[in-house]
Amino acid sequence: MAKLKYLVIHCTATPSGREVSSGEIRAWHTNPVSKGGRGWKQVGYTDLIHLDGEVERLVENNEDANVDPWEITNGAKGYNSVSRHIVYVGGVASDGKTPKDTRTKEQKLAMETYVKEFHRRFPKVRIIGHREVAAKGCPSFDVQAWLKTIGINQ
Predict the structure, then answer these.
(1) Which is nearest to 96 in space by CA: 18, 22, 25, 10?
(2) How far is the C-alpha of 137 from the C-alpha of 66, rounded, in Å?
(3) What is the C-alpha to C-alpha distance for residues 44 and 111, in angstroms, rounded to an integer?
(4) Are 107 and 45 spatial neighbours (Cβ–Cβ below 8 Å)?
């Protein structure tokens, strides 16, 4: 068990308007490489924010300030044992590869509610975008700038 240090925000890297199911994400992450997956033991995210703003739990956790071994998700290499990971559906332009903030109004509201509540409960946990700890475009928006717009100063 490790102390929770980060909440990492991700995108599914799918085009605007294309919904993604939890089953698809599980297949992407946990199917064997030979079947198009990554071969991971666990899905990469704790929670998924759908296009309509619904938040779906992908990996159970006991909602405390620690990351128990059974709560670890594979969201950011080197950070998983001290992080929780959330993902919104979308994050790329219609070309399927250019990073773009495609969050719907409903997703923005759900993410703001989620992050504010998380920050209220765990004020010492740093909220970051995946690209802050990996050479990626994910989550396709500047998390630190966005946090300031919703009144969170870390």
Answers:
(1) 18
(2) 28
(3) 18
(4) no
For domain 2-149, the CATH class is: alpha beta
Q: Which residues contact 142 (CB under 8 A, 6 or more apart)?
A: 129
What's the rounded Cα separation, in Å, for the pair 64 and 14? Answer: 31
Q: Is the Cα torsion angle 46, 57, 143, 64 positive or negative in sign?
A: negative
What residues contact residue 89 under an 8 Å CB cut-off, 6+ apart?
11, 12, 14, 18, 19, 20, 48, 49, 50, 51, 107
pLDDT at residue 6 tops 90 = yes
- Sequence spans of domains, the chain: 2-149
Are 136 and 130 in contact by the 8 Å Cβ rule? The answer is yes
pTM: predicted TM-score of the whole model, two decimal places: 0.96
